[in-house]
Specification:
This protein is mainly alpha-helical and 284 residues long. The protein has 8 helices and 5 strands; from the N terminus they run αααβααβαααβββ.
Length: 284
């Protein structure tokens, strides 16, 4: 065997080895790339939420800490998150994004808005029935329990938003990580709607996927409990399962699915009240 032929065989062997190594590492590399893209989208949503929560607190401070006004300000701040990427935005794109943001904010399954301060206890401590004093704060004294009227006039809100995971496969992995070790069941289209299998780190964002999964698993259990030979009912159950949407039905005219795999992100903001906080606008 000549030296040239030996060299060609060696190069071919090295090329084949490199191909095998590439095929082994490619899935992990692809997962890392897709995960990086998904985490970048989560960071974008968190950055937008931080700004939106400040806007919500600002609007609430101007309107007696009204929870409706706070949610409306939050929806306005979240609107850029739902704008069409690329190109020049048009008025219809802005209107569509504003509607989607409003649906996301006012839906208790996708967003939770909490007024941390002031509280009903502050009204009770200061013996105020309707509104907290908002004038001459510099000269007002603390109440008997040590809470000052200045502190009571700080509006602090906390918002927990269920951000949607949209990158294929990476969304399942991140969703499973968010829900603890039991969350790995999501990789097989299972969830945690039954008491026998609960997430080790439960959160409010699991509800959407669980509602769909519950229907799917109930139909599966009915089909599996049928006696052998009942093919018509079994096929009907299979047809129903196949027609169930992978996410909740799309909102007409908006092309937006409310459901999907979501994980919670949280932001807080504190703003000095610019109007008297109304007692009836606060949660009980």
């Amino acid at each position: 065997m000549t030296g040239a032929r030996i060299g060609r065989l060696r190069r071919n062997s090295e090329a084949g080895q490199a191909m095998v190594e590439y095929l082994i590492i490619f899935p992990a590399l692809l997962l890392l790339i897709m995960g990086a893209i998904q985490f970048a989208l989560i960071y974008q949503a968190k950055f937008t939420l931080n700004y939106a929560v400040f806007m919500a607190a600002r609007q609430g401070a101007l309107k007696n800490a009204s929870i409706t006004s706070i949610k409306d300000g939050l929806a306005g701040g979240m609107t850029p998150l739902f704008m069409r990427s690329g190109g020049t935005p048009f008025l219809d794109d802005l209107a569509k994004a504003r509607i989607i943001a409003t649906i996301e904010v006012f839906n208790p399954l996708t967003a939770k808005v909490e007024i941390i301060s002031p509280t009903q206890a502050a009204f009770d401590a200061m013996q105020q029935n309707s509104q907290l004093p908002n004038d001459n704060l510099m000269y007002r004294n603390a109440t008997g329990d040590g809470m000052s009227i200045q502190d009571a006039n700080l509006l602090k809100i906390r918002v927990t938003y269920c951000v949607k995971l949209v990158v294929p496969f990476a969304n399942r992995v991140i969703y499973a990580m968010s829900n603890g070790m039991q969350g790995v069941k999501n990789l097989t289209n299972e969830s945690f709607w039954s008491p026998a299998s609960v997430a080790t780190t439960p959160n409010m964002c699991r509800q959407l996927s669980e509602m769909y999964t519950q229907v799917r698993q109930e139909i599966n259990s009915i089909a599996s409990g049928l006696p052998a030979g009942v093919s018509i009912v079994d096929n009907l159950a299979g047809t129903i399962i196949s027609q169930l949407p992978s996410e909740f039905p799309t909102i007409p005219l908006l092309n937006w699915n409310v459901g999907g795999m979501r994980i919670p992100i949280t932001a807080e903001a504190i703003v000095r009240m610019q109007s008297p906080a109304a007692r009836d606008s606060l949660p009980p």
